[in-house]
Specification:
The structure holds 2 protein chains of 2 kinds.
Chain A (H helix, E strand, L loop, with lengths): L4 H13 L4 H12 L2 H17 L9 H20 L11 H5 L7 H8 L4 H9 L3 H12 L4 H8 L3 H19 L6 H4 L6 H8 L1
Helix pairs in contact in A: 2-3, 2-4, 3-4, 4-9, 7-10, 8-10, 9-10
Chain B lengths: L3 H11 L5 H13 L1 H20 L7 H10 L12 H5 L3 H16 L1 H27 L6 E2 L3 H11 L15 E10 L2 E10 L2 E9 L5 E8 L2 E8 L2 E7 L3 H20 L1
The chains are: A mainly alpha, B alpha+beta.
Protein backbone atom coordinates (compact mmCIF):
# COMPACT_ATOMS: atom_id res chain seq x y z
CA UNK A 1 0.00 0.00 0.00
CA UNK A 2 1.56 3.28 -1.06
CA UNK A 3 1.62 6.10 1.43
CA UNK A 4 1.85 9.52 -0.13
CA UNK A 5 4.06 12.29 1.18
CA UNK A 6 0.96 14.28 2.10
CA UNK A 7 -0.33 11.39 4.21
CA UNK A 8 3.00 11.13 5.92
CA UNK A 9 2.96 14.85 6.63
CA UNK A 10 -0.51 14.65 8.11
CA UNK A 11 0.56 11.85 10.39
CA UNK A 12 3.54 13.78 11.65
CA UNK A 13 1.39 16.82 12.27
CA UNK A 14 -1.19 14.65 13.97
CA UNK A 15 1.39 13.29 16.38
CA UNK A 16 2.62 16.76 17.24
CA UNK A 17 -0.73 18.52 17.52
CA UNK A 18 -3.45 15.99 18.32
CA UNK A 19 -1.69 13.30 20.34
CA UNK A 20 -1.34 15.59 23.37
CA UNK A 21 -5.15 15.43 23.62
CA UNK A 22 -5.25 11.65 23.76
CA UNK A 23 -6.21 11.68 27.45
CA UNK A 24 -9.32 13.70 26.66
CA UNK A 25 -10.15 11.37 23.78
CA UNK A 26 -9.74 8.29 25.93
CA UNK A 27 -11.67 9.76 28.85
CA UNK A 28 -14.67 10.49 26.62
CA UNK A 29 -14.56 7.08 24.94
CA UNK A 30 -14.15 5.34 28.29
CA UNK A 31 -17.19 7.10 29.74
CA UNK A 32 -19.31 6.43 26.65
CA UNK A 33 -18.37 2.75 26.24
CA UNK A 34 -17.87 2.19 29.99
CA UNK A 35 -15.19 -0.34 29.30
CA UNK A 36 -11.37 -0.09 28.99
CA UNK A 37 -10.97 -2.49 26.12
CA UNK A 38 -13.74 -1.01 23.97
CA UNK A 39 -12.55 2.51 24.72
CA UNK A 40 -9.06 1.62 23.44
CA UNK A 41 -10.50 0.16 20.23
CA UNK A 42 -12.72 3.17 19.66
CA UNK A 43 -9.93 5.69 20.32
CA UNK A 44 -7.56 3.85 18.01
CA UNK A 45 -10.13 3.77 15.23
CA UNK A 46 -10.98 7.44 15.79
CA UNK A 47 -7.30 8.40 15.64
CA UNK A 48 -6.86 6.52 12.37
CA UNK A 49 -9.80 8.46 10.97
CA UNK A 50 -8.45 11.71 12.37
CA UNK A 51 -5.04 11.07 10.81
CA UNK A 52 -6.63 10.47 7.41
CA UNK A 53 -8.64 13.67 7.64
CA UNK A 54 -6.02 15.78 9.29
CA UNK A 55 -5.21 17.50 6.00
CA UNK A 56 -8.70 18.97 6.07
CA UNK A 57 -8.32 20.33 9.56
CA UNK A 58 -8.07 24.12 9.38
CA UNK A 59 -9.15 25.23 12.83
CA UNK A 60 -6.81 26.18 15.60
CA UNK A 61 -8.47 24.22 18.38
CA UNK A 62 -7.69 20.55 18.06
CA UNK A 63 -9.34 19.19 21.18
CA UNK A 64 -13.02 19.70 20.18
CA UNK A 65 -12.22 18.52 16.67
CA UNK A 66 -10.64 15.29 17.92
CA UNK A 67 -13.39 14.75 20.47
CA UNK A 68 -16.00 15.17 17.75
CA UNK A 69 -14.43 12.30 15.82
CA UNK A 70 -14.10 10.17 18.94
CA UNK A 71 -17.70 10.83 19.86
CA UNK A 72 -18.89 9.93 16.36
CA UNK A 73 -16.86 6.72 16.41
CA UNK A 74 -18.28 5.87 19.84
CA UNK A 75 -21.82 6.28 18.58
CA UNK A 76 -21.20 4.07 15.56
CA UNK A 77 -19.72 1.48 17.88
CA UNK A 78 -22.63 1.72 20.32
CA UNK A 79 -25.18 1.42 17.50
CA UNK A 80 -23.53 -1.76 16.39
CA UNK A 81 -22.80 -3.30 19.76
CA UNK A 82 -25.34 -1.86 22.16
CA UNK A 83 -28.20 -0.53 20.05
CA UNK A 84 -30.51 -0.28 23.04
CA UNK A 85 -28.38 2.53 24.46
CA UNK A 86 -28.60 4.87 21.53
CA UNK A 87 -32.32 5.45 21.40
CA UNK A 88 -33.42 8.61 19.63
CA UNK A 89 -33.65 11.39 22.09
CA UNK A 90 -36.63 13.50 23.07
CA UNK A 91 -35.44 16.86 24.33
CA UNK A 92 -38.90 18.40 24.28
CA UNK A 93 -40.74 19.69 27.32
CA UNK A 94 -42.56 16.40 27.71
CA UNK A 95 -39.33 14.69 28.67
CA UNK A 96 -38.92 17.17 31.47
CA UNK A 97 -42.20 16.51 33.16
CA UNK A 98 -41.56 12.86 33.79
CA UNK A 99 -39.27 13.64 36.66
CA UNK A 100 -40.11 16.27 39.20
CA UNK A 101 -37.41 18.74 40.05
CA UNK A 102 -35.90 17.86 43.40
CA UNK A 103 -37.07 19.90 46.35
CA UNK A 104 -34.81 22.83 46.96
CA UNK A 105 -33.07 21.64 50.11
CA UNK A 106 -32.30 18.12 48.91
CA UNK A 107 -29.45 18.92 46.54
CA UNK A 108 -27.97 21.05 49.25
CA UNK A 109 -27.81 18.00 51.45
CA UNK A 110 -25.96 16.20 48.70
CA UNK A 111 -23.36 18.94 48.62
CA UNK A 112 -22.79 18.68 52.32
CA UNK A 113 -22.48 14.94 52.28
CA UNK A 114 -19.09 13.54 51.45
CA UNK A 115 -20.29 11.55 48.51
CA UNK A 116 -18.66 8.25 47.82
CA UNK A 117 -16.39 8.19 44.79
CA UNK A 118 -17.75 4.86 43.56
CA UNK A 119 -21.27 6.16 43.91
CA UNK A 120 -20.49 9.25 41.83
CA UNK A 121 -18.87 7.15 39.11
CA UNK A 122 -21.78 4.76 39.14
CA UNK A 123 -24.29 7.60 38.91
CA UNK A 124 -22.53 9.06 35.86
CA UNK A 125 -22.23 5.64 34.24
CA UNK A 126 -25.95 5.09 34.74
CA UNK A 127 -26.99 8.27 32.92
CA UNK A 128 -28.42 7.77 29.44
CA UNK A 129 -25.58 8.27 27.00
CA UNK A 130 -26.88 11.62 25.62
CA UNK A 131 -26.82 13.12 29.12
CA UNK A 132 -23.61 11.37 30.11
CA UNK A 133 -21.63 12.84 27.23
CA UNK A 134 -22.60 16.47 27.93
CA UNK A 135 -21.85 16.03 31.63
CA UNK A 136 -18.44 14.46 30.98
CA UNK A 137 -17.52 17.12 28.42
CA UNK A 138 -18.60 19.91 30.75
CA UNK A 139 -17.33 18.72 34.13
CA UNK A 140 -14.30 16.62 33.25
CA UNK A 141 -13.09 18.44 30.15
CA UNK A 142 -14.35 21.88 31.16
CA UNK A 143 -15.51 22.64 27.61
CA UNK A 144 -17.77 25.57 26.74
CA UNK A 145 -21.38 25.03 25.66
CA UNK A 146 -20.33 26.05 22.17
CA UNK A 147 -17.65 23.35 21.98
CA UNK A 148 -20.00 20.75 23.45
CA UNK A 149 -22.67 21.67 20.89
CA UNK A 150 -20.11 21.19 18.13
CA UNK A 151 -18.83 17.86 19.48
CA UNK A 152 -22.26 16.35 20.16
CA UNK A 153 -23.72 17.87 16.99
CA UNK A 154 -26.68 19.50 18.78
CA UNK A 155 -27.84 23.14 19.17
CA UNK A 156 -26.61 25.11 22.20
CA UNK A 157 -30.15 25.15 23.60
CA UNK A 158 -30.09 21.36 23.65
CA UNK A 159 -26.74 21.38 25.43
CA UNK A 160 -28.35 23.60 28.09
CA UNK A 161 -31.35 21.36 28.60
CA UNK A 162 -29.41 18.10 28.53
CA UNK A 163 -26.87 19.40 31.01
CA UNK A 164 -29.63 20.63 33.33
CA UNK A 165 -31.34 17.27 33.03
CA UNK A 166 -28.10 15.35 33.56
CA UNK A 167 -27.41 17.27 36.75
CA UNK A 168 -31.00 16.77 37.89
CA UNK A 169 -30.65 13.02 37.40
CA UNK A 170 -27.32 13.04 39.24
CA UNK A 171 -28.90 14.84 42.19
CA UNK A 172 -31.68 12.28 42.31
CA UNK A 173 -29.26 9.36 42.09
CA UNK A 174 -27.09 10.79 44.87
CA UNK A 175 -29.89 11.47 47.31
CA UNK A 176 -29.25 9.44 50.45
CA UNK A 177 -31.17 6.20 50.20
CA UNK A 178 -32.44 6.88 46.72
CA UNK A 179 -31.99 4.29 44.01
CA UNK A 180 -30.35 1.48 45.90
CA UNK A 181 -29.95 -0.19 42.51
CA UNK A 182 -27.03 2.13 41.82
CA UNK A 183 -25.12 0.69 44.68
CA UNK A 184 -25.78 -2.98 44.08
CA UNK A 185 -24.87 -3.05 40.40
CA UNK A 186 -21.75 -5.10 39.80
CA UNK A 187 -18.74 -3.12 38.66
CA UNK A 188 -17.97 -5.20 35.60
CA UNK A 189 -21.50 -4.91 34.18
CA UNK A 190 -22.53 -1.33 34.76
CA UNK A 191 -24.81 -1.13 31.74
CA UNK A 192 -27.26 -3.53 33.39
CA UNK A 193 -28.38 -0.61 35.52
CA UNK A 194 -29.08 1.48 32.48
CA UNK A 195 -31.22 -1.15 30.84
CA UNK A 196 -33.22 -1.43 34.03
CA UNK A 197 -33.69 2.30 34.10
CA UNK A 198 -34.87 2.54 30.52
CA UNK A 199 -37.88 0.33 31.25
CA UNK B 1 -41.28 27.42 40.66
CA UNK B 2 -38.66 25.41 38.85
CA UNK B 3 -39.90 25.50 35.33
CA UNK B 4 -37.58 23.83 32.82
CA UNK B 5 -36.49 27.22 31.56
CA UNK B 6 -35.39 28.24 35.04
CA UNK B 7 -33.34 25.11 35.49
CA UNK B 8 -31.67 25.56 32.13
CA UNK B 9 -30.84 29.14 32.97
CA UNK B 10 -29.74 28.24 36.45
CA UNK B 11 -27.30 25.70 35.02
CA UNK B 12 -26.06 28.14 32.39
CA UNK B 13 -25.63 30.72 35.15
CA UNK B 14 -23.55 28.24 37.12
CA UNK B 15 -21.38 27.59 34.06
CA UNK B 16 -21.00 31.34 33.35
CA UNK B 17 -22.61 30.77 29.97
CA UNK B 18 -25.31 33.47 30.20
CA UNK B 19 -24.91 36.84 28.53
CA UNK B 20 -23.77 39.61 30.84
CA UNK B 21 -27.25 41.12 31.13
CA UNK B 22 -28.83 37.71 31.85
CA UNK B 23 -26.10 36.95 34.35
CA UNK B 24 -26.80 40.21 36.23
CA UNK B 25 -30.53 39.62 36.06
CA UNK B 26 -30.06 36.17 37.55
CA UNK B 27 -27.91 37.59 40.35
CA UNK B 28 -30.68 40.04 41.26
CA UNK B 29 -33.24 37.23 41.26
CA UNK B 30 -31.01 35.10 43.43
CA UNK B 31 -30.73 37.85 46.01
CA UNK B 32 -34.49 37.90 46.38
CA UNK B 33 -35.32 34.23 46.04
CA UNK B 34 -34.13 31.94 48.84
CA UNK B 35 -35.19 28.68 47.24
CA UNK B 36 -33.54 29.61 43.96
CA UNK B 37 -30.37 30.38 45.87
CA UNK B 38 -30.38 27.06 47.66
CA UNK B 39 -30.87 25.34 44.31
CA UNK B 40 -27.77 27.07 42.96
CA UNK B 41 -25.84 26.03 46.06
CA UNK B 42 -27.00 22.47 45.49
CA UNK B 43 -25.88 22.54 41.88
CA UNK B 44 -22.52 24.03 42.85
CA UNK B 45 -22.09 21.25 45.39
CA UNK B 46 -22.90 18.63 42.79
CA UNK B 47 -20.53 20.19 40.32
CA UNK B 48 -17.56 20.26 42.64
CA UNK B 49 -18.34 16.73 43.83
CA UNK B 50 -18.35 15.45 40.26
CA UNK B 51 -15.21 17.37 39.33
CA UNK B 52 -13.29 16.20 42.35
CA UNK B 53 -14.46 12.64 42.62
CA UNK B 54 -15.40 11.34 39.19
CA UNK B 55 -12.72 9.22 37.54
CA UNK B 56 -10.71 10.87 34.81
CA UNK B 57 -9.54 8.09 32.52
CA UNK B 58 -6.13 8.95 31.15
CA UNK B 59 -5.08 7.10 28.02
CA UNK B 60 -2.98 4.00 28.76
CA UNK B 61 0.66 4.32 27.70
CA UNK B 62 0.31 1.25 25.47
CA UNK B 63 -2.47 2.92 23.50
CA UNK B 64 -0.43 6.10 23.11
CA UNK B 65 2.55 4.13 21.82
CA UNK B 66 0.37 2.09 19.47
CA UNK B 67 -1.10 5.23 17.92
CA UNK B 68 2.31 6.85 17.61
CA UNK B 69 3.51 3.67 15.90
CA UNK B 70 0.51 3.71 13.55
CA UNK B 71 1.52 7.21 12.56
CA UNK B 72 4.92 5.83 11.63
CA UNK B 73 6.76 7.51 14.47
CA UNK B 74 8.86 5.62 16.95
CA UNK B 75 7.17 6.23 20.31
CA UNK B 76 10.30 7.63 21.93
CA UNK B 77 10.87 10.89 20.14
CA UNK B 78 10.54 12.64 16.82
CA UNK B 79 13.98 14.03 16.16
CA UNK B 80 14.15 17.02 13.88
CA UNK B 81 16.65 16.89 11.00
CA UNK B 82 20.05 17.65 12.42
CA UNK B 83 21.89 20.80 11.33
CA UNK B 84 24.89 18.70 10.22
CA UNK B 85 22.86 17.29 7.39
CA UNK B 86 22.32 20.74 5.95
CA UNK B 87 25.99 21.65 6.38
CA UNK B 88 27.10 18.52 4.60
CA UNK B 89 25.81 19.77 1.29
CA UNK B 90 28.69 22.26 1.00
CA UNK B 91 32.43 21.56 1.30
CA UNK B 92 33.07 24.29 3.86
CA UNK B 93 30.10 23.06 5.81
CA UNK B 94 31.48 19.55 5.62
CA UNK B 95 34.70 20.56 7.36
CA UNK B 96 32.77 22.41 9.99
CA UNK B 97 30.49 19.42 10.32
CA UNK B 98 33.46 17.14 10.88
CA UNK B 99 34.90 19.44 13.51
CA UNK B 100 31.54 19.62 15.17
CA UNK B 101 31.18 15.86 15.00
CA UNK B 102 34.57 15.49 16.69
CA UNK B 103 33.50 17.80 19.49
CA UNK B 104 30.23 15.92 19.79
CA UNK B 105 32.08 12.63 20.05
CA UNK B 106 34.23 13.94 22.86
CA UNK B 107 31.07 15.02 24.52
CA UNK B 108 32.44 18.47 25.27
CA UNK B 109 29.85 20.48 23.43
CA UNK B 110 26.79 18.65 24.72
CA UNK B 111 27.92 18.89 28.31
CA UNK B 112 28.90 22.53 28.08
CA UNK B 113 25.75 23.41 26.16
CA UNK B 114 23.53 21.48 28.56
CA UNK B 115 25.07 23.17 31.57
CA UNK B 116 24.62 26.70 30.28
CA UNK B 117 21.20 25.80 28.90
CA UNK B 118 20.08 24.50 32.30
CA UNK B 119 21.54 27.56 34.01
CA UNK B 120 19.63 29.84 31.71
CA UNK B 121 16.42 27.91 32.22
CA UNK B 122 16.81 28.01 35.97
CA UNK B 123 17.25 31.77 35.86
CA UNK B 124 14.21 32.13 33.62
CA UNK B 125 12.16 29.92 35.93
CA UNK B 126 13.26 31.88 39.00
CA UNK B 127 12.46 35.17 37.25
CA UNK B 128 8.97 33.90 36.45
CA UNK B 129 8.53 32.69 40.03
CA UNK B 130 9.59 36.06 41.45
CA UNK B 131 7.41 38.02 39.01
CA UNK B 132 4.40 35.91 39.98
CA UNK B 133 4.96 36.28 43.72
CA UNK B 134 5.68 40.02 43.47
CA UNK B 135 2.74 40.70 41.22
CA UNK B 136 0.36 38.74 43.45
CA UNK B 137 -0.73 36.92 40.35
CA UNK B 138 0.32 33.42 41.21
CA UNK B 139 -2.30 31.62 39.16
CA UNK B 140 -4.48 32.20 36.11
CA UNK B 141 -6.80 29.39 37.11
CA UNK B 142 -7.30 29.12 40.85
CA UNK B 143 -8.51 25.70 41.83
CA UNK B 144 -7.38 22.90 44.08
CA UNK B 145 -9.10 20.54 41.68
CA UNK B 146 -6.79 19.00 39.10
CA UNK B 147 -9.76 18.11 36.88
CA UNK B 148 -10.34 21.83 36.50
CA UNK B 149 -6.71 22.86 36.09
CA UNK B 150 -5.62 20.16 33.63
CA UNK B 151 -8.27 20.88 30.96
CA UNK B 152 -7.76 24.61 31.45
CA UNK B 153 -4.05 24.21 30.72
CA UNK B 154 -4.48 21.77 27.81
CA UNK B 155 -6.90 24.17 26.17
CA UNK B 156 -4.24 26.87 26.17
CA UNK B 157 -1.15 24.83 25.38
CA UNK B 158 -0.13 22.45 22.63
CA UNK B 159 0.35 19.70 25.21
CA UNK B 160 -1.43 18.34 28.24
CA UNK B 161 0.74 18.52 31.36
CA UNK B 162 0.44 15.90 34.09
CA UNK B 163 -1.36 17.53 37.01
CA UNK B 164 -1.22 16.07 40.49
CA UNK B 165 -2.31 17.31 43.85
CA UNK B 166 -0.02 16.57 46.77
CA UNK B 167 -2.54 16.97 49.51
CA UNK B 168 -1.41 13.76 51.18
CA UNK B 169 2.05 15.32 51.53
CA UNK B 170 0.58 18.43 53.15
CA UNK B 171 1.13 20.55 50.06
CA UNK B 172 -1.72 22.83 48.98
CA UNK B 173 -2.47 22.96 45.28
CA UNK B 174 -3.31 26.57 44.36
CA UNK B 175 -3.88 26.20 40.63
CA UNK B 176 -2.02 26.85 37.41
CA UNK B 177 -0.85 29.50 35.02
CA UNK B 178 0.74 29.69 31.62
CA UNK B 179 4.16 31.26 31.17
CA UNK B 180 6.84 31.58 28.52
CA UNK B 181 10.10 29.74 29.05
CA UNK B 182 12.74 28.07 26.88
CA UNK B 183 11.22 29.94 23.92
CA UNK B 184 7.82 28.29 24.29
CA UNK B 185 4.62 28.49 26.34
CA UNK B 186 4.85 26.25 29.39
CA UNK B 187 2.51 25.04 32.12
CA UNK B 188 3.12 26.22 35.67
CA UNK B 189 1.49 24.35 38.53
CA UNK B 190 1.48 26.35 41.71
CA UNK B 191 1.71 24.72 45.14
CA UNK B 192 2.11 26.11 48.60
CA UNK B 193 3.78 24.58 51.60
CA UNK B 194 3.40 26.56 54.79
CA UNK B 195 4.03 30.08 53.50
CA UNK B 196 6.31 29.06 50.65
CA UNK B 197 5.08 29.13 47.08
CA UNK B 198 6.39 26.35 44.86
CA UNK B 199 6.19 26.71 41.08
CA UNK B 200 6.40 23.59 38.95
CA UNK B 201 7.23 24.42 35.32
CA UNK B 202 6.40 21.66 32.86
CA UNK B 203 6.84 21.42 29.10
CA UNK B 204 7.54 18.77 26.46
CA UNK B 205 11.16 18.19 25.60
CA UNK B 206 13.20 16.12 23.16
CA UNK B 207 15.85 15.62 25.80
CA UNK B 208 16.56 12.18 27.17
CA UNK B 209 15.36 11.10 30.61
CA UNK B 210 17.48 12.65 33.28
CA UNK B 211 17.50 12.09 37.02
CA UNK B 212 16.69 14.85 39.47
CA UNK B 213 19.32 17.55 40.00
CA UNK B 214 19.34 20.23 42.65
CA UNK B 215 20.58 23.76 42.12
CA UNK B 216 20.19 27.14 43.71
CA UNK B 217 20.54 30.76 42.74
CA UNK B 218 20.17 33.92 44.84
CA UNK B 219 18.50 32.10 47.69
CA UNK B 220 16.03 30.26 45.53
CA UNK B 221 16.21 26.52 45.24
CA UNK B 222 15.43 24.49 42.16
CA UNK B 223 14.99 20.87 41.17
CA UNK B 224 15.10 19.69 37.61
CA UNK B 225 14.48 16.39 35.91
CA UNK B 226 13.02 15.02 32.69
CA UNK B 227 10.65 12.13 32.49
CA UNK B 228 8.51 10.65 29.72
CA UNK B 229 9.29 13.47 27.31
CA UNK B 230 8.50 16.23 29.81
CA UNK B 231 10.92 18.66 31.36
CA UNK B 232 10.27 19.64 34.99
CA UNK B 233 11.61 22.61 36.91
CA UNK B 234 10.56 23.20 40.50
CA UNK B 235 11.41 26.60 41.95
CA UNK B 236 10.80 27.86 45.45
CA UNK B 237 12.25 29.70 48.40
CA UNK B 238 11.57 26.56 50.39
CA UNK B 239 14.73 24.92 51.76
CA UNK B 240 16.44 22.30 49.59
CA UNK B 241 15.41 19.33 51.78
CA UNK B 242 11.73 20.15 51.90
CA UNK B 243 11.70 21.01 48.22
CA UNK B 244 13.27 17.61 47.56
CA UNK B 245 10.38 15.90 49.36
CA UNK B 246 7.87 17.76 47.21
CA UNK B 247 9.85 17.06 44.03
CA UNK B 248 10.16 13.35 44.76
CA UNK B 249 6.45 13.05 45.56
CA UNK B 250 5.63 14.73 42.27
CA UNK B 251 8.06 12.54 40.36
CA UNK B 252 6.69 9.40 41.98
CA UNK B 253 3.09 10.33 41.19
CA UNK B 254 4.14 11.00 37.64
CA UNK B 255 5.95 7.70 37.13
CA UNK B 256 2.93 5.98 38.62
CA UNK B 257 0.84 7.62 35.95
CA UNK B 258 2.96 6.65 32.98
CA UNK B 259 3.50 3.14 34.26
CA UNK B 260 -0.23 2.54 34.52
Amino acid sequence: MGVSVADDDNRQRFIAIALPHLDAAYNLARWLTRNDHDAEDVVQEACMKAMRHFGGFRGDVVRPWLLQIVRHTCYSWLKENRPAEVVSFDDSDAAWRESAAPAADEPHAVAQRKADRALINQAIASLPVAYREVLVLRELEDLSYKDIACIADIPIGTVMSRLARARGLMQQALLPGARPVLRTVARHAPHAALRGEKK
Amino acid sequence: MSTPLDLRHLNAFLDSELSLSEQLEMETRLEQDDSLRSEVTGLQGLRSTVRQQADYHAAPAALRNRIAALAGTPPVSTAAPTPQRRFASRPAGLALGLALAALLTWGIVPRWWQATHDDRLMQQAIASHVRATLGQRLVDVASSDRHTVKPWLSARLDFSPPVHDLQAQGVVFLGGRVDYLDERPVAVLVYKQKEHVIDAFIWPTQEAESPMRASSHRGFNARHWTHAGMSYWLVSDLNQDELAVVAYSLERKDSGDTAR
